[in-house]
Amino acid sequence: MNNDSMVYLAESITYCVHPAAPLADIDQAQVYLDDLLAKPWFSQRWPKVAKKRIQIRAGKTWKWSASTPWDNKITLSPFHLNNLVILHELAHFCAEREIHKDIYHGPEFCGAYLYLMKRMAGAEVERSFRHALKACGVEFTRVL
After folding, report:
1. Rounded mean pLDDT of the chain?
2. pTM (2 decimals)?
3. Is 128 helix (H, G, I), strand (E, B) or coil?
4. Mean pLDDT confidence for 35-49
5. What is the Cα–Cα distance from 71 to 140, expressed in whole angstroms?
6. 3-state secondary structure 38-106
7. Hey, which of 49, 62, 130, 134 has its CA 20 to 30 A from 12?
8. Domain boundaries, the chain
9. What is the DSSP letter of 130?
């Protein structure tokens, strides 16, 4: 299995123990994201990302969600309308240097995702995901 698959496996393990908080629709997802981007700790850690106007749009497939940092968009599958998927997709913006190298779920991404989880979903969720990443052999940076 490649690193991307192992990150998805670690997510699946974590989501079984800590289900994601559902969001009613795309508008509620946008409010959640906008509130997160406006938090002082976020703008201190990722000032360039905090200044972007990231738009969440509805995906046309149930299979996947995606981030496109180069055009400031997150596309969410109707099945993925929840807080943890938004944190996953936002972590791609926070690890944009890796995307430019065609690394989508590398150590910088995983570190950003862990940090976002801790701040937005709680330390217990972050700890479970960190342990799952380690069990799956996935490396991550530490974000202070």
Report:
1. 93
2. 0.94
3. helix
4. 97
5. 26
6. CCHHHHHHCHHHHHCCCEEEECCCCCCCEEEHHHCEEEECHHHCEHHHHHHHHHHHHCHHHHCCCCCCC
7. 49
8. 3-135
9. H
Name every residue whose Cβ is closer than 8 Å to that of residue 19 and which is 6 or more positions away in sequence: none
Burial (Cβ within 10 Å: 0-12, 13-18, ≥19) of residue 35 = exposed
Q: What is the CATH number of domain 3-135?
A: 3.30.2010.10
The tokens of 114 are what?
A: 């862990």
What SS3 class is residue 22? strand
Tokens of 101: 């190298």
Name, in order, each residue with C-beta under 8 angstroms of 100's C-beta and a sequence gap of 6 or more. Answer: none
**pLDDT bucket at 120, cuts 50 / 70 / 90:** very high
Residue found under tokens 């960190």: 130
For the chain, the residue count is 144
The kind and range of the H/E element at 29 are: helix 26-37
Query: What are the C-alpha distances in Å from 40 to residues 1, 45, 116, 119, 142?
Result: 38, 9, 13, 12, 19
Q: Which residue has the tokens 């509805």?
A: 58
